[in-house]
From TrEMBL:
This is TMM33 protein. The gene is Tmem33. Its main location: membrane. The chain crosses the membrane at residues 32-52, 99-125, 169-193. One of its GO terms (biological process) is membrane organization.
Length: 251
């Protein structure tokens, strides 16, 4: 979801207004730059134009840049750090803390294309929101082509967030597969399960919880059809029951 900080246009010339806006919002500007860098590195990993070896390094850079962005956003949300259980519990409620943990889970693992999409798309959405604010500070009608692209991206935000949630869910079995294929660590599935429970309980972003519900409805609809074999129906029901028991309670 886009950051909620609101800033109006600043006085000055076309370029001067944008510069003043950026300088007046240094922390937001730093996050904007790190998000743009995340998008750049993620794109060069997904599309390895510079070679497969370089793509692996861009994978790590994207996750490290995302970790930096998440840490800055967490500092913005909780500026007064305290070494206490209450502060940790409060930090774990923040989406930025979730994706700081996410970056640390995958930064040293075998590169997985699926794991880079949430980082890429979240950074793209946030960067687009702030870019529009920069354009507004520059001039109300500056760069109409770029504005049009940003508006189209914003119009598809709900679909993008659902796609991100789908990635978050299906990365869970992917981490288990990576473990058995020798490409993951023993702790990775357990730490990722903790990340997924945090996303399921998120107060700001309900899409992970919504996708779990929608997937359950689709599976239950398919297995009730007469053409579905009995053993498949029993297997799916057992899987649904197991996943439901693992789901955290949401206030």
């Amino acid at each position: 979801m886009a950051d909620s900080t609101q800033n109006g246009p600043m006085p000055g010339g076309a370029g001067g207004g944008a510069v003043q806006f950026l300088m007046a919002n240094k922390l937001d500007t730093a996050m904007w730059i790190s998000r743009l860098f995340t998008v750049y590195c993620s794109a060069l990993f997904v599309l390895p134009l510079l070679g497969l070896h370089e793509a692996a390094s861009f994978y790590q850079r994207a996750l490290l840049a995302n970790a930096l962005t998440s840490a800055l956003r967490l500092h913005q949300r909780l500026p007064h750090f305290q070494l206490s259980r209450a502060f940790l519990a409060q930090a774990l409620l923040e989406d930025s803390c979730h994706y700081l943990l996410y970056s640390l889970i995958f930064v040293n693992s075998y590169p997985v294309t699926m794991s880079i999409f949430p980082v890429l798309l979240f950074s793209l959405l946030h960067a687009a929101t702030y870019t529009k604010k920069v354009l507004d500070a520059r001039s109300s009608n500056s760069l109409p082509f770029l504005r049009n692209l940003l508006e189209k991206l914003n119009a598809n935000q709900q679909n993008i967030l659902k796609f991100i949630a789908c990635n978050e869910i299906f990365l869970m079995p992917a981490t288990v597969f990576m473990l058995f294929s020798g490409q993951g660590s023993l702790l990775q599935p357990f730490i990722y399960y903790r990340f997924l429970t945090l996303r399921y309980s998120s107060r700001r972003n309900p899409y992970c919880r919504t996708l779990f519900t929608e997937l359950r409805i689709v599976v239950e609809h398919l297995i009730t059809k007469p053409a579905c074999p009995v053993f498949v129906r029993r297997l799916c029901l057992s899987g649904i029951s197991f996943i439901s028991r693992l789901a955290p309670t949401v206030a």
